[in-house]
Each structure stands twice: as C-alpha cells, then as structure tokens.
Design a protein that fits this description.
By secondary structure, the chain is mostly helical. The chain has 3 helices and no strands.
C-alpha cells in the first residue's frame, strides 16, 4: 500500500470519527462539545505528525518527502474544512 493511500485512508477515518463523535457528544452531553473538539484536534494533529514523521525518517528521497508532506497538508486542510463546515 502506498503511503498516499494510507494517508488518505487515515484522513477519511479521522473525518468520519469526528462526525460520528460529534453527533454522539451532541446527543448525550452538548456541554462537552468544546472539550470534544479540542481532544479530536489534538488527536488528529498527533496522528498526522506521527505519520509524516515516520515517512520522513523512512524515506531517503527528499523529493518524495516534500510531495508527501504537501499532500498531507492538503488533505489535512480539506478534512478540517469539510468537518467544520458540516452542519449537524
């Protein structure tokens, strides 16, 4: 599996988990939505940084690293825009 496909799958799982978690927290305890958002933002950031860091340490070709990092930044931005713009 290529790293780009792995990254895309990870972003898809993170986006779906945010949406489903948001719905669950909103239904059960709406007062905890700010904490949920901060926890999910931290988890997303840590997972993305871990994935990028592992790829950077594993890959010797600088051009591939730059392309992967730019792709991850783009996917992260798209994930954030999509999840934050959804009206629940």
């Amino acid at each position: 599996m290529t790293p780009f496909i792995l990254a895309a799958l990870m972003f898809a799982v993170l986006g779906v988990s945010y949406v489903k978690g948001y719905d669950l927290v909103k239904a059960k305890s709406p007062g905890h939505l700010p904490q949920f958002y901060l926890i999910m933002a931290t988890v997303r950031m840590l997972l993305v940084l871990t994935l990028v860091g592992c790829y950077v340490l594993r890959t010797e070709n600088k051009e591939d690293v730059v392309h992967f990092v730019l792709a991850c930044l783009g996917m992260y931005a798209v994930m954030m825009v999509v999840t934050l713009s959804m009206r629940h």
